[in-house]
Amino acid sequence: MDQEMDSAVNNGRKRELASLTVVTKGLSSGQLKPVIARTFRLEQIQEATRFLESNAQIGRTRDPESPHLRDQSRPL
Q: I want to staple 37 with a disulfide (CB 3.0 to 4.6 A). Which of 7, 10, 42, 59 is the partner?
């Protein structure tokens, strides 16, 4: 039983790593681009939190005032 569990965990980690590699390469090459679902200002943090908790978003939710997100050439 322990070997079966170890095997299942290792297979899961391998799939996870393979998925991460595909996404990382896609983002680096520009073939994948993040989708910004909605933009919230810092003073709308409670609304942003409710939006995220509702699972209604497709893509990312961000604060447009965040300095590292202003530069669109930099990956999110």
A: 59
